[in-house]
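Changelog note: in this version the structure field was regenerated for every chain. One regenerated record is shown below for reference.
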Amino acid sequence: MSPEVDALRPQGLPRGRLLPGRATAPLVAIALMILLVAKGIVPALSQLDTDFPNYLTAARIVADGGPTDGLYDTPWFQEQMRRYRIGVPAEGKFAPFPPPTALLLIPLARLQPLDALRIMTVVSLACLSGAIILLAKALSWRTIDAAMFVLLSGYAILSGLRFGQPYIVASFCCILGYYAYLKKRPWLAGISFGLFAPIKYFALPLLLYFAVRQQYQLVFSGSVTILTIVLASIALLGWPLHVEYLAILGNHLIARLDMQDSFTASFQSFDSLFRRLFTFDASANPLPLAAMPGLQTLAVVITKGALISVAIAALIRLARSAAAGVAPSIGLIGILTLLLAPATATYHFALLWLPVGLVIDFALRRGAKFCAYFMVGAYALIGFFPYRLTAGFEGRGGLSVLAYPRLWLLLALFIACIYCVWRLPNPIHRAVAPEPAGIAAIGASP
C-alpha cells in the first residue's frame, strides 16, 4: 500500500481493521456465526420453506420437457407443484421472475426438494465464505472484520438460506467481478457481473457505469455472458414466454405483484409507501393520508428523479478523482439501485455487501470515522431491525411512514455516501495511482 493512500486512514485505527479494539470484531463475528447456524443453517437443512419450491418446480418442468409457456399461469403452475409434490401449491407462483430463472436449478431438478435445498444451502455457504475472503482482500480488511461486516447483514443471510434464494451467490459474483477488475482481469470481471444479470438485475447499472468509464473488455464480456444466457433461455423456454414476461414487467416495476398486496409495507419501497399514503382502497387501504392517486405517481417520479439526479452529480464529482473514484461510485450505484427498487425483501440486502463495504472504506480512507461508523450502524440495523415494532403504524394515514424503517435506513446510507463525496475535504487527488490489490487498489483501473 502506498504511504499516500495509507495516510488517508484515520489516526488511531490500525490498517486493515474495520472497528477499533482488537477483540471487537472477533467477538461480534462469533456471536453472529452462532446465530447463523441456529436461525439460518439448521432450518435450511431440516425443512422446506417458501420461495425455493418456485425455483425448483420451474426447473423440474424444464428438465422434464414440459410446456413452459404456462409458467406465468399461476393456477397451472400451482398444479405442477401439486403434481411434483414440491412445497405448498397454494403459495406457489413463478411470476414475476424473468424466464432464465427457470434454468437456475436444473442441476438439482431431479432431487427430492429437501435434498435440493440442502445442496443449495451448501453452495450458498461456500459463496458466503468466498465473499468474505474476497471482500477482505479487496478492502485490505482483516478476514475477521470482513466476516463480521458480512454477517451483520443478518436477515439477508438467514432468510436467503431458509428460503433457498440465490442472492448470496449473486452477491458473491459481484464481489468476484470487482476483485477481478482490481486484478486487471476484465474478461473474468465481465463474466462475474453478467452471470446473474438476466435473473437479478442488480449488476446491470454497474455494467453501464463501466461502459461510461470505457472499460470495453469488461462490458463486452458481461454483455456476451448476458446474451448467451438469454439466448439459451429463449431456445429452451420459447420466445412466447419471454414476450409474456415483457407484458407483466410493467406491473413489477410499479410494485404490483401477483398474489401480493400492492400496499404492503413489506416491500419497503417508495412505490408502496406513496401508494399507501395517497391511494384509497376500501379493503386494502381505507385510511390513506389523502385520497389522491395522481399524487402517488407524481411523488414516486419526483423522489426517484431527485435521487438519480443527486447520484449523477456525485458520480461526476467522483469521476474527477480518476481511478480513486471508482470504488465509491460502485458503492453509490449499488445503494441507489436498491433504493429505487419497486419492491424489496430482506434477502435482497445481501447485495449490499460490496457497495456498502466500498463506501465505508471510502469514508475511513478520508478520515471520516463518524460517517463510516454511522453507515456500519445503519447497515446493521437493516440486517436486524425488529420490524414488529413498526408494523402497527401501517395503514394509519400519515403514520404509515413509520412502517418503512428499512427504506429510511437505506436512504440514510445513500445520504451518508453523498455527504462523504460532497462535504468532506477531498484528498484523493493527492494519492498516487493505487496498486492492484487491497485498499490501495479499490479504484484501480485496468
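Spot check on this record: The radius of gyration is 22 Å. Residues 278 and 415 are 25 Å apart (CA to CA).
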